[in-house]
Amino acid sequence: MKSTWNWLTGSVVGLAIASTSYAGSPYAPHTAARSIPKAPETATEEVADEAKLRPLLDKLSELSQVIDRNAQSPQVWQYHLEQAEVLLRLAAQSRQKEREDILHMAVDAYSSAALLCPREQPVGLQRLRELPARLAQYFPGSPAILYSVLQGIEADCTLELEKTGGDKVKAEEYHCKLLMQFARQNADFPEAAKAVLQAAHIRESLGQNEEACRCYRLLIDRFPDNPAARKAGGALWRLGDKHQPMSLELPLLYGAAGSGSTALHLDELRGRLVVVYFWTSSSEHVEDDFRQLRQITDRYAGRGLEVVYVNVDNDAAQARAFLSGRLTAGVHVHQPGGIEGSVAERYGIQSLPQAFLVGRDGSLLKHSLSIERLEAEIALQLPRRR
Prior knowledge:
Layout: H1 2-9, H2 50-69, H3 76-92, H4 96-116, H5 123-138, H6 144-163, H7 168-185, H8 190-205, H9 209-222, H10 227-239, E1 249-251, E2 263-265, E3 273-279, H11 286-300, E4 305-311, H12 316-323, E5 331-334, H13 342-346, E6 354-358, E7 364-369, H14 371-381
Helix pairs in contact: 1-3, 2-3, 3-4, 4-5, 4-6, 5-6, 6-7, 7-8, 8-9, 9-10
């Protein structure tokens, strides 16, 4: 037990990154300045009782309070770094079923330190870059290893955005490059498919649909059994040149009074222009979107517009609680699962909220629309009568 504590309480030093190295990126292999003593075998087997873990838990509690009190301090990154080290020590002494959650928390703390440390003294960033090799040495086979690489990529891309003076396109293209390098070098792991899907989403958000489609097709070809491949198929359908019919059959969030109907079939709305708005109660900007959608409905309902709200919270009661007391118009339906649910998978939805516009013939006209862009598209489809 004592040797395990000595291992984790030692100083962090430079390490060579082997299996997670990236040519042309901050993750290129480098020579280790010094080596860390090998962890004892008991680091992954030994289970400490609560009395032995208590000092670590108390230290974490103390650091959390310090971080809260010093959130605006230039030195707060040092507390995040210390917190990360304590979490690593705790992970080494924890049961296997708890260890991964603790390791992920440690990676997040290192990431916070990397983003908050002074740019002229990037100690936090260097520690984050060294972390994958450190985890591989002391927690071999842990999913946290690749998670730490991905968090390092996110941190590097945030810094790249600063370096480019806020040039989002350049920073996001750099982001895609690192994600695709990660996917190529870790093709046997599920995280590779997620990285390609994220790169595709970024390309699509930049309006680079041809590049996005290449990524989506790669997912289908290389990772056919991964859920990301099914989502890629939905995305290719969305991005297709031909207008495709959109189908939707979901239970109503509120039963239609007196009708006995319990579900909505999108085909029932043929002949009307339909907005299909996908959301969760935790979606960013959803409250503003509801307000604007009600205004749009007031302006265009008499001219042939219908709005269908598709909630994807896991619990329908959560959606009803959110809507309680809010004035909304249109039809409300529910499909659990969020971004990982069947509806999001079918249409390749990777972020919420977003709106689709469906034509009178039931075909998809536009997708991934902001509310501001949505009204402009509706105005084109439903011109004012003279």
